[in-house]
Amino acid sequence: MAALATSAAAETVLIYGEPGPNRGARAEATQWFADQVAEQSAGDLRLDITWGGALFSERAAVQSLRDGVADLGSVIGVYFPQDLVAYGIADLPLDNPDPWVGMKATDALMRNNEQIQANLAAQNLVYVGTYTTSAVQMGCKGPAVTSVDQLAGKKVRGVGAYGQTFRDLGATLVDMTVYEAYQGLENGLIDCTQTYSYLVAALKFDEVFDSYTFIDWGQVGALGIVMNKSMYDNLSPEQQQVVMTAGEGLADEFGRIIGEANAESIAMLEEAGKEIVSFSDEDRARLTEAAQPYLDDWTARADAAGLDGAALLEEYRGLIAQYSEELESQGYPWDRG
């Protein structure tokens, strides 16, 4: 295991692997999580975060965490459609547009569903907490994509059901990570990239985007923190509780952060005079209809992994409805006073 015990201070140091850079909304939330672990444990636990993929790339995260290259770290579920098939439910193009609602529903499912816990345990993994991308949008070098029909012929970086749906509607799908999209736009390998508003500032997309399209279509929510189970099992019950309590708090904290970060990123584009447009409700309906086969595909893959895909979808939709109702009646937690 990667953890280090420093006996002089009676402190356990957990090594955290982060493929992304130490800037932007998610980095802020990851640091908040680390600070919460240290604070809640009164110095008994500390995270040593290694940023920028120095320990593992986003595509190697699950195997690296399983093998103990790091004790815990960030994973992007879309790169692991089989290993993290259960987590992939949060990437499906459902009626799930609010980031906080999506995170709370995903966290409750991943944390409490026994099928999912067993599936991860068999891979020497434990779920800790979740982020989200917020709603799926599109940034382009050149004119904005203003409708579904204009996807035809565009070279688009897209992932998961969203990217596959863009392809089905006529785009040329290009396989690259979001961290490679800046260079891809700059050198013409892609015309547009699937993105999320907060990444504009985090990845400096304002330097390469000429236009930005609000698609407001679902969100990629299989983005979170996973821990090596052997290391987790070696922690005391009190230490385990600290990690899980901090992880559960991420949905509220990142919900607050990402709302502010989305607004700041859009302000950057507006101030730079970028073209900003929005898809119509009719175009979003066309996207949702075109994406239905990928919900069916996920259900089949979940079943093949020994999960009950239909039951998980039903539970997840129920959680989305539950937290949507809470949001409507009580507002966001950070605004409740």
From TrEMBL:
The protein's name in its UniProt record: C4-dicarboxylate ABC transporter substrate-binding protein
Record keywords: Periplasm, Signal
Membrane-spanning residues: none
Keyword Aminoacyl-tRNA synthetase: no
Subcellular location: Periplasm
SUPFAM superfamilies assigned: Periplasmic binding protein-like II (SSF53850)
Species of provenance: Paracoccus liaowanqingii
GO biological process per UniProt: transmembrane transport
Pfam families, alphabetized: DctP
CC terms in the record's Gene Ontology section: periplasmic space
Superkingdom, natural source: Bacteria
